[in-house]
Each structure stands twice: as structure tokens, then as C-alpha cells.
Amino acid sequence: MSERLSRDQIAARVALELEDGWLVNLGIGMPTLTVNYIPEGRDILFHSENGIIGMGPKPAREEDIDPDLMSAGKGPVTLIPGGAFIHHADSFAVARGGRLDAAVLGAFQVAVNGDLANWKLPTAKSGSVGGAMDIAAGAKRVFAMMTHTAKDGEPKIVETLSYPLTAKTCVTKIFTDMAVVAVTPEGYVLEEVAPGFSAEDVQAATGAPLAVPDDLKTIAA
Amino acid sequence: MQNKKCDTLEAALERLTDDAIILVGGFGIAGVPEILIEGVCDRGLRGLTIVANNSGTHETGIARLLAEGCVGKIICSFPWAVESFVFKEMYEAGKVDLEVVPQGTLAERLRTAGAGLGGFLTPTAVGTELGAGKPVHEIDGKEYVLERPLRGDFALIKAREVDGRGNLTYRMAARNFNPVMAMAADYTIVEAATEVPVGALDPETIVTPGVFVDCYYVAGPYTPGKEGGPYS
């Protein structure tokens, strides 16, 4: 049995996808790890919906933690040189206005048409939506970052959602602990597999057909 | 010049009434007008509707307002944070109502109210539970949900500096909802750390002009929100 990728290994793979010059929003949870794996020399600006453009990593020293400088996930961060503070309406103008080249968001489920579910469990009376719906609806690309299957083994990459919708047809690519899967008008395309997994292994853990190209790659982990 | 300064917390908050809609600035622990909220707690009001990003954290601020039975409804984007245990308990006991609003929609509903508009069309929440029952319009082939303005009777704002005209500056990401809420209420009350003479603020750095501010209370040296501390 092959090992699935760790959260950090998925983050390292997502980081490779972020291009020089992009403005990127990282969702709460696993996506925030991505910031630690940006390849040297790429100038990527991070947007945090609580009004930070140019969010930097956690301060190196405990005494430099500033309660007025926190990420949307409420963790301590820094501001890079040339960063800026904006108010909430402007921050979401950035998100909805198409300025985000990519958003990396956690997910419960992704559907074959790119529908995203990540804000509320089906059985819950209510959820904490935060900025998820605005960011998913507005970003140029939405990368779903998640485990390939739920804790009970159920596939999270499915034909149609059974979880409550966050935003329609927004996910462009999925990064999991087993694979990288593109969401295309023709359906899911398996682009990469984690080391030790075959296309058949990934298909068995996926709730919809995966097209497998001849040049299927292995994730460098 | 109109005197907007209130020398006491009681004077700053004396207009508040039962059943008022109160906009409360802040995100997490940053930019929360903790001193004003504590003052509202001391008023012992009932039936308040609180509009904020969060549903109160730990046991102070909005959480204390909830615990003391002052709040009938919370309108927010992120009610179920681990630190919002007071809200969870009150909600599950049926003692407080909840309206969940996507964060960007919340900000824009406030801005829209402040700008005197009747609503706006947003791609956010189309086809979702939070868009359910709202009119959908198609503009240039794309679907949008019609959202209504959200106006407060009062706004409670935390600022860094204030001058006699009520002009405000903020600090870092403590700005968040504060400037948007300041413009969206009938009566805007500010808790500022430092008062400076009129003319001392560089006009280029004023974020909220005093036209949106009705009164301010000078709360003393600026203390950023601190987890577990009096500002948490």
C-alpha cells in the first residue's frame, strides 16, 4: 500500500502551480501551508480577505507578533515591503472584481462541472461561510486542495455534489494526497499521480471517470 | 465647530436603545471596539441585533453581550469559530437568532447602505442556500443575486487616531470592517486611542472622514487586540 502525500507535500505541489506575478488568496486550513513552499525567485502577492495585500509569513520572533496583523485564519503574519492595508469592501472588490489570479481553497467535494462544496456539512443547520463564496465566485482560477477521499473512504471528487454548494463551476484544478486532477469541459483529466499510485488506484478512489493522458506524470514529492 | 467628543463612555453610549441594530467593527480580535462594547453591556439593553464578522470570541465583547442576554439576533459571516463557544451555547438553547451572510456580501451590503443605494447584484451565493429566495438577474450572460442594503441604527468603531472633526485613522488589519460600518449607521460612535488637534492629521492619510462620525470617546493608549487579554 503506497503512502498518501502529507499536507505539506500537497502544499509543495500547489505552490509550484502559482506563477510569478500572481495575486493569490489562500483559504483557511491546509491552503495556508502553501506560502512555505513558493519557489525562490517567484514574486507572488498574497491577499488576505481581512484587508491585507502582500501578506508575508509568520514573524520569526514571538515578540514581533502583532494582534493587528493576522491572517483571515487568525494566525500571526507579516506584511511584505510594498504591501498595503485596505478595508473590507475593497478587499472583496479585489476578490469579486477578478483581481485574484488564483484562490487555493479547502473542499468537501468537487463536481465534474467545477461546482465546489466547502462551507457547510449536509447535516448541519448552518455553516461558517466566511469569504468562501465571494472568493470562489470571483477568482480567475480556483484550486481545490483536499484529501482525495473523506475519512470514511468516500470519494470527494464526484459527478454531482451531495454537499451544499459554495459556488458553481469555479474549480479549475484539484490537488489531493493522491493526484492532480484538472476540471475540463470534457470532464476530469488525471494529470499527475502521487509516487507509488497508479491511475487505476486513483480511479478507484474517485467518484467519476478520469481521463488518463499518455504522458501521465508523477508528483515530485 | 460641532463638538463630537464625549468625555465619558456613558455619554458616548447614551442614545442606544433596546432592539437597536448595532454594527460592530473588527475581525477576529483586530479592530474590535472592546471598550464601547463593554459599555453597552453595562447598559443592560435587550433585543439588540448585532452585525459583525464573528459571533463573539471568548467571554468578552460581543460574547459578554450574548451571555448577559442583550442580543436577540446576530448577523455575521463566521459564527462557528471554536472561540465562539458562548454564541454556540446561546444558539443551541434557542436564545439568539442567526443570519449567515457571505463576508463580501456583508461588507457590500453595509457599503451600499452607507452610499444611499437600494441594493446591488453580486455573483456571490448564486444557486446556494445563502442565495435562496433572492431574485436572480442575468447581466451580460452572467447570473447575479440581488442583495439589499444593511443599515445600522448605531455603529461601534475602533480607530487609532481621531481629531475634533471625527476624522479617523486605523492601524494595520484592524481597519477591516470599521470604515465600511462607520458610513452605514444612523449614528456612529468611535473608540479612539489618541485624540489629535484639528489639522494635525495628514489629510492624505485620513481613512474615514469625520462626516461619517457622530461622536467619539478617547479610550487611551492604543492596545491591539490580544488573545485572552482585556481586548480579546
How would you portray this structure in words?
The complex is a heterodimer of chains A (221) and B (232). Chain A has 221 residues and is of the alpha/beta class. Chain A has a single domain (7-218), classed as Glutaconate Coenzyme A-transferase (3-Layer(aba) Sandwich), CATH 3.40.1080.10. In chain A, strands 1, 2, 3, 4, 5, 8, 10, 11, 12, 13 and 14 form an 11-stranded mixed beta sheet that branches. A 3-stranded mixed beta sheet of chain A has the order 7-6-9, with no helix packed on it. Chain A is built from 4 helices and 14 strands. Chain A binds chain B through residues 48-52, 66-70, 72, 74, 79, 85-89, 91-92, 95-96, 120, 126-135, 137-138, 164-168, and chain B through 27-31, 53, 77-81, 98, 100-108, 110-111, 122-130, 170-180, 207, 224-227, 231.
Give the topology.
The complex is a heterodimer of chains A (221) and B (232).
Chain A lengths: L6 H11 L5 E4 L18 E4 L3 E5 L21 E8 L2 H9 L5 E5 L2 E3 L4 E2 L14 H7 L3 E4 L11 E2 L12 E5 L3 E6 L2 E7 L5 H6 L5 E2 L5 E2 L3
Parallel strand pairs in A: 1-2, 1-5, 5-8, 6-9, 8-10, 12-13, 12-14
Antiparallel strand pairs in A: 2-3, 3-4, 6-7, 10-11, 11-12
Chain B lengths: L8 H5 L7 E4 L9 H10 L4 E4 L10 H6 L3 E6 L8 H8 L4 E4 L2 H12 L5 E3 L13 E4 L2 E6 L4 E12 L4 E2 L8 H5 L2 E12 L18 E4 L14
Parallel strand pairs in B: 1-2, 1-8, 2-3, 3-4, 8-10, 10-11
Antiparallel strand pairs in B: 5-7, 6-7, 8-9
The whole-angstrom Rg of chain B is 18 Å
- Mind telling me the CATH superfamily name of chain A? Glutaconate Coenzyme A-transferase
Helix content class of chain B = 10-25%
Low-confidence stretches of chain A: none
- What proportion strand of chain A? 25-35%
The coarse overall form of chain A would be globular
Number of helices of chain A: 4
Q: Helicity of chain A, in percent?
A: 10-25%
DSSP strand count of chain A:
14
Through-space gap between termini of chain A: 17 Å
* Mean pLDDT value of chain A: 96
